[in-house]
Write a structure and sequence with these properties.
735 residues; mainly beta; eight-stranded mixed beta sheet; 36% strand
Length: 735
């Protein structure tokens, strides 16, 4: 089978959905902002996008107002507005999640610019192909070359988009004698009888397949019966490697294990027989002591390729190489233990490592696009800690997949609220289960670039920690770069899942797979396979749903997919904890949609039915429930809407602007995570069990602490409220 792939030329997409029309009364009569557009697509890497010009007009005749000064109220890199009211967005702008992000423009005019209006431009994620079809006749004559094209291309929002050029597509066929070249199908399939063929096109991990009848007849047109036979025929796209076939790997080549170290004072381990041996290779040395404690240390081999250890009351010793790979044009040095892997080094099934499929070298790394472009390393079955490093030029956001299942979502997404930190982005996946003898690493979504990979074997001589897996939407997700200090209230978009590790001890490992824009069905399809692939009996799975189900799904479908996840987890012994979504200032209403005062108790308005459905499902399936919606509503009614908007959501104190009243700031994420951890601690103390007889004893939560919150009461007086909850112990996540 031949494959054709060249450098993808990114097509700029700009869509005008309508005019923004906002009015206000100024000194000269009715004023309004016209022109512009409702939404715009964030540009791809290396590109910019511009809106149509926004203008200020007055009166029924819409006369332009002169002397208007335009400015951007919302924060975020890569966005500016010209004197003519044209908004420019560069590739440094991050749209947050699939729902996009709003940019607020301000127009000011008059003496001292005492008159003003605002308008909103919605920024969608960079346009990418979500579905398409292959246009090709149902019957192809041997040795003919019918034209082939891509049609009905839709983006991730369901909008029509221009089809990518054919040379930018990864083509695969069902036979070596079928190829796609110069915009046509080359059909040299031998034979004289009716046969069947197929081509498969892959664009950024999205695939479409077209079957066709191959014949040698004149003026042949297949009838309905022939097309039905075509649909039922056994036609399989050729793949170079069938990764479902297990590769035999010698575990002894990847680790030295001595479980009879009692009484040894010294131990010399010869590592020259282990994989990847060089004088610069780093080795992970794990010692389990007689009292059960464990120590770990990175070491290099000394003279003769031996690691010489001084032992004290050791029970077992394990030594394994740390596999470090610098990919493509990245600058990771061999003297630091890295192996340089050029983009042209292919994995064909025999090598220790290499690339499979369409992989391109880029500045500072390579691009890996879903299963059509992967980095492969041969590994014995077991658990591994896998750390990836994105290039300094990486623009985020990526979904990281290992062996086809998501192990990291939203990786590299900066979010909003002036998040700052060091590049490049680093992401750690803990205890990733590898089966079949190979680890296959790929990326999807906006940023496909990768600079380096570090693989550490989880020591067999130590007991695996209980894992807590977290699923949900953008209010739960990780955002990057990783903070190095605590920001002021109202800043740094942060999901509660990314700070949840601060509320548990080192006895638990936390893996946050929440992804922006997801709802129960899409999260089940995108990220849930990573939970069931890695999760073990006794692990926990906390899942929030509701926000995006309200926009993209419905209550019944949400319940259906939550039920699927509950059933699959219970089948594997993973303990499920459902969570209702937190309340927010965006939905500061009661359950019937009525407006609340400053100190009302928010119930979520249109979100209320989704919260109720989750509560009922938890009761029906007898799983644990954290009623975050109820807890946040009660607490928010104590401190008031203004406090919540300015501390727990994204608020710009310099401009005094509520930038985002749905997503959480760093402090808001801490508060929601604290409420969830406290609820679990209380249920654990009460001896709660689910319908399977599981308890919460596997959760190792920090101790309770009491602290004071200073806020205003309903009379405007400053008061202090004492709060008791699980204590947060700061730790940097995902690295």
């Amino acid at each position: 089978m031949k494959k054709i792939r060249v450098r993808r030329i990114l097509a700029k997409a700009l869509s005008v959905a309508g005019l923004i029309l906002l009015t206000a009364c100024g000194k000269e009569g009715n004023m309004q902002i016209t022109g512009g557009q409702e939404y715009i697509y964030a540009p791809h890497t290396g590109e910019t996008a511009q809106s149509a010009p926004f203008t200020v007009t007055k009166g029924e005749e819409a006369q332009p107002v002169e002397g208007v000064t335009w400015s951007i109220l919302s924060s975020g890199e890569g966005v500016s507005v010209s004197e003519e009211g044209v908004v420019t967005i560069t590739d440094a702008y991050v749209a947050g999640d699939i729902n996009g992000t709003d940019i607020t423009l301000k127009a000011a005019w008059g003496e001292g610019e005492d008159q003003s209006l605002t308008a909103t431009l919605h920024v969608r994620e960079a346009q990418r192909v979500a579905s398409f079809e292959i246009s090709l006749p149902d019957a192809v004559k041997r040795r003919e070359q019918p034209e082939i094209s891509l049609i009905n291309c839709l983006d991730q929002y369901g909008e029509p988009m221009e089809a990518p050029a054919l040379e930018d597509v990864l083509w695969e066929t069902s036979n070596e004698n079928l190829t796609v070249r110069n915009g046509a199908l080359q059909c040299f399939l031998p034979g004289t009888e009716i046969d069947y063929g197929a081509v498969c096109a892959t664009i950024d991990g999205v695939t479409a397949e077209k079957r066709f009848i191959v014949h040698s007849l004149e003026d042949y047109q297949p009838d309905a019966a022939a097309l039905e036979q075509l649909a039922q025929a056994k036609v399989k796209i050729l793949r170079e490697i069938d990764f479902s076939q297990e590769r035999a790997v010698d575990p002894g080549a990847y680790a030295y294990i001595n479980e009879n170290a009692s009484g040894l004072q010294e131990l010399s381990v010869d590592v020259t027989g282990l994989v990847n041996y060089t004088p610069n290779t780093i080795y992970q040395v794990t010692v389990r002591h007689e009292d059960g404690s464990v120590t770990k240390e990175d070491m290099r081999a000394g003279e003769g390729g031996k690691i010489n250890l001084k032992l004290e009351k050791a029970a077992a010793v394990e030594v394994s190489p740390v596999l470090l790979f610098g990919l493509g044009l990245s600058e990771f040095d061999e003297k630091d233990g890295y192996v340089h892997v050029d983009a042209a080094e292919k994995y064909t099934g025999e090598e220790f490592y290499g690339f499979y499929g369409a992989v391109a070298g880029t500045t500072g790394g390579v691009t890996l696009r879903n299963e059509s472009g992967m980095f492969v390393a041969a590994l014995p079955d077991g658990f591994y800690n896998i750390r990836i490093t994105k290039p300094k030029s990486g623009t985020g956001r990526s979904t990281v997949r290992v062996n086809g299942a998501s192990q990291g979502t939203n990786v590299g997404n900066k979010g909003t609220g002036d998040r700052s930190g060091a590049l490049p982005y680093v992401y750690l996946m803990e205890d990733v289960r590898v089966e079949g003898g190979t680890m296959r690493l790929s990326l999807s979504e906006k940023d496909y670039s990768l600079a380096a990979v570090e693989i550490r074997k989880t020591p067999q001589i130590t007991e695996r920690r209980v894992h807590i897996y977290i699923g949900g939407d953008s209010t739960v997700s990780n955002y990057y770069p990783i903070e190095t200090s605590e920001p002021q209230p109202g800043r740094y978009q942060t999901g509660w899942g990314q700070v949840f590790a601060q509320y548990v001890t080192e006895e638990n490992a936390v893996t946050n797979l929440a992804g922006g824009g997801t709802f129960a069905k899409s999260w089940y399809e995108m990220a849930f396979p990573g939970v069931v692939q890695n999760g073990q009996p006794g692990d926990y799975f906390i899942l929030q749903a509701g926000i995006n189900d309200r926009s993209y799904s419905n209550v019944d479908e949400m319940v259906l997919y939550l039920t699927k996840m509950i059933d699959e987890c219970q089948e594997k012994g993973i303990i499920v904890i459902l969570a209702t979504t937190m309340q927010s200032c965006k939905f500061w209403k009661d359950a019937n949609g009525n407006e609340l005062g400053e100190f009302g108790t928010p119930e979520g308005s249109g979100l209320a039915p989704f919260m109720d459905a989750i509560r009922k499902l938890a009761e029906q399936k007898q799983v644990f429930l954290v009623d975050t919606g109820k807890m946040t509503g009660e607490w928010y009614s104590v401190v008031g809407r203004t406090y919540v908007a300015q501390n727990y959501h994204l608020y710009n104190p310099q401009r005094k602007v509520e930038e985002d009243t749905l997503h959480l700031s760093y402090h808001g994420a801490l508060k929601v995570a604290e409420l969830i951890a406290t609820s679990l601690a209380q249920q654990k103390a009460d001896g709660a069990t689910d319908g399977q007889g599981h308890t919460l004893e596997g959760l190792s939560l920090n101790d309770m602490t009491t602290y004071d919150v200073v806020h205003k009461d309903s009379t405007g007086k400053e008061v202090t409220t004492s709060v008791t909850g699980v204590q947060a112990i700061y730790k940097r996540y995902a690295e």
